[in-house]
Amino acid sequence: MIKIQRNEKCPCGSGKKYKKYCLNDPEKNAEIIRATSIAQTFEEVKHILNKPMNIYQIKVELVRMGPWKIESEVSRTFKLKGNQTLYDLHMNIQYAFDWDNDHMFSFYLSDELFDRDNEGLGNCQYTQI
């Protein structure tokens, strides 16, 4: 992981100091932090920041509401940018189904339903964006 000092030039290519440009913008700073966490050199950071963002289309199917199994298909399809998180997906699901945001949630990152080995957990009350 690369560390960018406040007084260095911003890796976004603006030519300004990091502290005067992207450090003060939460969205831009989050992108720089993401890029520096996976890059080995400053050139790689610049390449990651200038690369077009991947867009993912995700179909979410509702299979159960509490103890009740759902017989007919209820699903929504979402498009997420490559820098969005599972928490962002969760919030999109909440909005699409008109639910309130007051419960634990989990995502299963395999094709197997309730696959505990590939489960991502979250708690909306304690998760920050």
Number of domains: 2
Which series of helices and strands comes N to C?
HHEEHEE
Spatial arrangement of strands, main beta sheet? 1-2
Summarize model confidence as the mean pLDDT.
80
- Rg on CA atoms, Å: 19 Å
Helical coverage, percent range:
25-40%
Residue stretches low in confidence (pLDDT < 50, at least 5 long) are 123-129
Beta content: 25-35%
Structure class: alpha+beta
- Which outline best applies? elongated
Number of helices: 3
* Major sheet description: 2 strands, antiparallel
Q: How far do the termini sit from each other? A: 22 Å
The count of β-strands is 4
Fold blueprint:
Elements: H1 26-38, H2 42-50, E1 55-65, E2 68-81, H3 86-96, E3 104-108, E4 119-123
Which key phrases capture this entry?
alpha+beta, disordered C terminus, elongated, two-stranded antiparallel ribbon, 129 residues, 2 domains
Quick description:
This protein has 129 residues and is an alpha+beta fold. It is built from three helices and four strands, in the order H-H-E-E-H-E-E.
Task: Please tell me about this protein's structure.
With 129 residues, the protein is of the alpha+beta class. The chain has two domains: 1-51, no CATH class; 55-123. The chain has helices at 26-38, 42-50, 86-96, and strands spanning 55-65, 68-81, 104-108, 119-123. It has a two-stranded antiparallel ribbon with strand order 1-2. A hairpin with a 2-residue loop joins strand 1 (55-65) and strand 2. Helix 1 packs across helix 2 (42-50). The longest helix has 13 residues, at 26-38. The chain starts with 25 loop residues before the first helix and ends in a 6-residue tail after the last strand.
